[in-house]
Structure formats: structure tokens, C-alpha cells
């Protein structure tokens, strides 16, 4: 059970799933499938939900749709697990509006990636993070590696020193050892591993949990890695990662822009969601790729 801080927000730890956003065949938010997906992941032991992030196709949603999606998720979760909302947008004012909506819904945290196109303007990124942090009274998770922009340990420490509610950092970089450096160099900011293929190594370096998308498809496996790790059974955690997660995720991310559609195709085949529909600029899989993904999932007993 998640600890509750003095401000009433529950701490994030363990398996935090980056929730997909199901759409119907007309491209509209599918409320029934969204509810079914939430019940599926929570029932399988996921420790927390992160809605409205990149995996949730936030980049295809209007502001009104993002706010509605957040409300739908909060209504279905009903406080059963900690709830985080992605509020990423290159317009700081929009991120602030979404953050305030999340706070009004009783969310435990908001997640914010650096604004797009500003990878060479650190002062603009810092101003963006700090403006949002100062606009709400709730924890903020910054995103190391979001939009391809890496945050140094020193930057993260400095951000926390200027806004104490910047309490978490999602680390989606191919360097799990940086998690350990973050623990030492920015001790007030707790890291979460953001890559399925390296999450166990990140946890060994000190990550308090993970924020990954595969928990939509096989939440039992992702939760199982955490339960084994928490029980100091590293061999069992490694076995689940290597047997259940690495090969399955590997076939889905060979084209980075296709993983969301791959995950949705699998969930539709499992009957968890009604349709694998994604919105442009994401496109359907070609028939050979779709067949290969689903065939591999059958071989791995995911289907």
C-alpha cells in the first residue's frame, strides 16, 4: 500500500503503468474499453496508473479531450491506486491548466516532459518546469529523456531546490547506472525506471518503481517483477523480465512509432479493448507486421 504524505498525496512506488487511451473505430475515446483496461491492470496488481502521457496518445488529443480523459480515469480508478496524469505540452499555460485540473481531481502527481523543440534552451525548459510546479500544490514528476531531451543530475537537483514539489523523475534513457547517480546527486528527487528492457537494472541502481507501457498488455508480468524484487528474489525478477517481458516488448519496439499500435492490437486480440484504433500521425500496422506481433505473443503465451 502506498504511503501518504503530509499533503495527502500518496507516494509513487512499484509498477506505475503508462495507460493507453482506447479509441473506437471512429477515433473517439472509448469509455467502455477505457474502464475495462483500468479494471484489467488494477486487477492484475499494478501499483499505480499514469494517464494521459505519450503512451496515452496525448499528442493527438485536444485540451478538452485531455481534461475529459483525466476525469474518466479518475472516476474509474476511484482512489484504489495512486494516480498520476501526464500534462505535457509545449505551451506552459496549457500544462498549468491541465495540472490544476489534475489537482482538482485528487491526483497524486503530475508528469511533465520538457517542451518540444527546446533541447538547446535549458533556461526555457527550467522556466517551463518551475512555472507548472509553482502553479499547483502537488508533486511533479519531470521526464528525463522525454522528447529526446536528457536532464542532467545537476539540473534535476537544481529544479528541486527551486521547487520542492518536483519530487520524481522518470528516467527513459539507455543508461540505468544514471539512476544511482541521481539518487546520490539529487537525493530529494526519487527516480522511476522508464524503460521495460532495463527496468530491473534501474531498480537495482535505486529506482523506487517503474513507469512503463507494457503493463497495459501484461500487467501481471510487470507487477511480478516488482513483487519478486521487493522480496529480494532477484533471480525470479530476472526470470520474468527475460522470459515474459524482453522478447515481447522487443518485437513491438523495432519501430519506435509503432509500439502503441502493437500494444493495442494485442489488447484487442485479448478482448480487453474493442478496437486497436490509433489516431494520426500513428498509422495501422501492415498485415505482415501485425501477424508477426500476434504470432510472437501466442508463442510467448501473452495471447
Kindly describe this structure.
By secondary structure, the protein is an alpha/beta fold. The protein has one domain: TIM Barrel. Helices cover 45% and strands 12% of the residues. It is built from eleven helices and eight strands. It has helices at residues 31-43, 63-77, 92-104, 122-135, 153-162, 177-185, 199-204, 219-230, 234-252, 259-270, 287-299; strands spanning 14-18, 48-51, 83-86, 109-112, 140-144, 166-171, 190-193, 209-212. An eight-stranded parallel beta barrel has the order 1-2-3-4-5-6-7-8, surrounded by six helices. Helix 2 (63-77) packs parallel to helix 3, helix 3 runs parallel beside helix 4 and helix 10 packs across helix 11. The model has no long low-confidence stretch (mean pLDDT 95).
**CATH arch. level architecture:** Alpha-Beta Barrel
Portion in strands: 5-15%
Uncertain residue ranges: none
Number of strands: 8
Using the coordinates shown, work out and report the CATH topology.
TIM Barrel
| Helix content percent band | 40-55%
Largest sheet: 8 strands, parallel, barrel
For this structure, what is the CATH homologous superfamily?
A: Aldolase class I
Mean pLDDT value: 95
User: What is the N-to-C succession of helices and strands?
Assistant: EHEHEHEHEHEHEHEHHHH
**Class computed from helices, strands and strand pairing:** alpha/beta
Give me the Rg, rounded.
Answer: 18 Å
Kindly report the spatial arrangement of strands forming the biggest sheet: 1-2-3-4-5-6-7-8
**Count of folded domains:** 1
Shape category: globular
Give the N-to-C terminal Cα separation.
30 Å
Tally of contiguous helical segments: 11
**What is the name of the CATH class?**
Alpha Beta
Amino acid at each position: 500500500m502506498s504511503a501518504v504524505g503530509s499533503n495527502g498525496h500518496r507516494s509513487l512506488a512499484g509498477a506505475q503503468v503508462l495507460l493507453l487511451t482506447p479509441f473506437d473505430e471512429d477515433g473517439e475515446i472509448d469509455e467502455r474499453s477505457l474502464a475495462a483496461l483500468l479494471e484489467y491492470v488494477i486487477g492484475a496488481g499494478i501499483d499505480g496508473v499514469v494517464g494521459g502521457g505519450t503512451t496515452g496518445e496525448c499528442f493527438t488529443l485536444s485540451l478538452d479531450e485531455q481534461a475529459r480523459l483525466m476525469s474518466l480515469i479518475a472516476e474509474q480508478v476511484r482512489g484504489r491506486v495512486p494516480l498520476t496524469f501526464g500534462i505535457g505540452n509545449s505551451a506552459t499555460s496549457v500544462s498549468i491548466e491541465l495540472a490544476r485540473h489534475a489537482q482538482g481531481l485528487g491526483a497524486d502527481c503530475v508528469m511533465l516532459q520538457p517542451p518540444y523543440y527546446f533541447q538547446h534552451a535549458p533556461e526555457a525548459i527550467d522556466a517551463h518546469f518551475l512555472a507548472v510546479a509553482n502553479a499547483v500544490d502537488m508533486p511533479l514528476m519531470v521526464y528525463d529523456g522525454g522528447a529526446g531531451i536528457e536532464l542532467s543530475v545537476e539540473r534535476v537537483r537544481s529544479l528541486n531546490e527551486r521547487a520542492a514539489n518536483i519530487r520524481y523523475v522518470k528516467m527513459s534513457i539507455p543508461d540505468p547506472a544514471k539512476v544511482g547517480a541521481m539518487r546520490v546527486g539529487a537525493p530529494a528527487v526519487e527516480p522511476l525506471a522508464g524503460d521495460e528492457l532495463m527496468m530491473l537494472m534501474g531498480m537495482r541502481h535505486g529506482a523506487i518503481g517503474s513507469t512503463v507501457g507494457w503493463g497495459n498488455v501484461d500487467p501481471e508480468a510487470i507487477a511480478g517483477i516488482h513483487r519478486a524484487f521487493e522480496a529480494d528474489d532477484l533471480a525470479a525478477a530476472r526470470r520474468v523480465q527475460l522470459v515474459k517481458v524482453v522478447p515481447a516488448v522487443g518485437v513491438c519496439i523495432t519501430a519506435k512509432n509503432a509500439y502503441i499500435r502493437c500494444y493495442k492490437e494485442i489488447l484487442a486480440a485479448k478482448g480487453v479493448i474493442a478496437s486497436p484504433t490509433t489516431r494520426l500521425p500513428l498509422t495501422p500496422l501492415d498485415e505482415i507486421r501485425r501477424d508477426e506481433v500476434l504470432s510472437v505473443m501466442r508463442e510467448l503465451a501473452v495471447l
